[in-house]
UniProtKB/TrEMBL annotation:
Pfam families, A to Z: E_motif, PPR, PPR_2
GO molecular function: RNA binding
Record keyword Repeat present: yes
Gene3D superfamilies: Tetratricopeptide repeat domain
InterPro entries given in the database record: E_motif, PPR_At4g14850-like_plant, PPR_rpt, TPR-like_helical_dom_sf
Organismal lineage: Eukaryota, Viridiplantae, Streptophyta, Embryophyta, Tracheophyta
Keywords: Repeat
Record organism: Nepenthes gracilis
Alphabetical GO biological process terms: plant organ development; RNA modification
Name used for this protein in its record: Pentatricopeptide repeat-containing protein
Amino acid sequence: MNPQHRAFFNEVVKHTRELNIQKGKTLHAKIIKAGLSSSVYMANCMVNLYAKCGHLPDAELSFDQIDGKDVVSWSCLINAYSQKGGVESSSAVMGLFSRMRAQNTLPNAHTFVGIFNAMSNSCDVLGGRKAHSLAIKTDICWDVFVGSSLINMYCKLGPIDDARQAFDRMPERNSVSWATMVSGYAMHRMAVEAVGVFKLMMQCQQERENEFVLSSVLSALALPEFVDIGRQVHCIAIKDSLVWIASVGNALVTMYSKCGSVRDALQTFEMSSDKNSITWSAMITGLAQSSNSKEALTLFSRMHYCGIHPSEYTFVGVVNACSDIAAIVEGKQLHCYLVKMGFENQIYIITALVDMYAKCGSIDDSRKGFDYLQEPDVVLWTSMIAGFAQNGDNESALSLYGRMEAKGIPPNELTVASILKACSSLAALDQGKQVHARVIKYGFILEVTIGSALSTMYTKCGSVEDGNLVFRRMIARDIVSWNAMISGISQNGCSNEALELFEEMIMEGIKPDAVTFVNILSACSRMGLVERGWKYFNMMSDVFAIAPALEHYACMVDVLSRAGRLIEAKEFIETAKVDHGMCLWRILLSACRNYRDYDLGAYAGEKLMELGSQESSAYVMLSKIYTALGKVDDVQRVMRLMKLRGVGKEPGCSWIELKNLFHVFAVGDQMHPQITEIQAKLQILTKQMIDEGYRPAYD
DNA sequence: TTAGGGTTAG
């Protein structure tokens, strides 16, 4: 080769390495002028230069002009497309590969690397297997690059066992093959297997751990039960000085956050000297997901102050933090900021915004976000459905789910849980049953989320038996499932069964929480079981170390008052070790009215007056008690106080939905078109009630 | 003296 040719080659290589397309193009012109473009070797270099610089059409043009394309020409273009990614590129690769074979050019290891990479983006497992068998026939699989690409392909396409088989059969492995296998297991959330391969690698004399394998194994360990192994990997990273590499630090931050050790995550974050946008995003997301949302917002400000540009991941994390604490002002500011940065078309961002606006009660803004995208994915549909349900618009939740089904988008577990919640609120048993049919059709397992939602739906719709059937068939139950079932049974008037279920739960070794005790104390109250009420109330702190909160005291006052043990209730309130404000006295006052214990009622009422109650019912009840006691002066005093304090009496109001029409009734209101018939019917009912022995309250 | 594989944030 003459010196001029050599100089050209060196220059192409240099421009390719520096991705300098301008200089590359100028050089291309010089090469044509020098009559060197007919050299296949030189033309291949030009195809590669254009491909590496991201100019695929120019690469293809140069490729088309090559006379006598060799395996390098084909492989160059195949790899250019496979690196571009996406389903379209993988079909372009397969097209090129057929053309190459039609021209009798034999593929080599470079070609197969491109083929396997393209297939890994294709969702075509069968196509992947065909390519694999062709590589075996061509006797190419021994190559360590081909092997790693093959493992990667099977990991991404799904059949992870095939990936492992390919890994086990490799005659030679290097750090990339180990890292690919570990990251494959991490991708499939197979922590035990990922750690297994990592340990094998550590035992292997030729291999040393590197940042790729460490970050992969750490991402597999991001579950609370693996935090101890995660710490051991952290030690290895420190020992090998790999902890200072950003990707390892980032993986550690995420691992600790997801394991529930936010403190460790923060410590790792602060110690990291090589923070990039990912590090900040990981920490912000970690804080938001561990109910430290205010800290997440503060960290975002700090990131901004440090001059680090937020990515779409950062915005997802920080917008989710706003959702968590319903910070609408900050949420809107972020919305403006991310539009300025050009992220408003990203589906993850839109989903986070829809969720944020719904949790902040701005359901119209959620709807705008949802309508913004032509083709929402299942997560976005679910966020919008859940948003409607959270805001009490259960009809819209159901109708949107109908649209989603009509579009043929299969729901996921969270969609089903949200829609079941809407059915529960509407007591829509028929629709709930249809959703249950979908659960069976899609083969969803009755794990905690779906099982609890389903059993709650049945009990809220009054079908305790079906609720129980679902509850019994669940493969796993957490405290939320038990609480939901206990409360559901109790609300259907089966308080005895609710208490039995609680005893069963204790026998199974499930530790009750504060919600459980609210449920069972309410059941005791409904059944008038004072002694059991006391037993459970004391059990909370004595056996389960749960400090009774205001709602437990309220339940206990209710237990005592409903059973007519009013003095005991009064003493209980006065010795309560909780800042009870007015809530407990109000319960007692109401009970005194029902039991006509006017002296004690007056005592409770005066307590409420002393505490400055703003509730009209307290003033009305107390004045009625004084009326009954014949204390006219006190009646006038209470009414004056009510006026002085500006307490308005809100008119009692109720409504009923019949055939999609709401009928609203307020006290003293004569607006309803059928009011005469309604009042006549009420008189008949009242008479019937008195005849059957019921006595209406004194007012 | 041309072409190839692995990581971390939703």
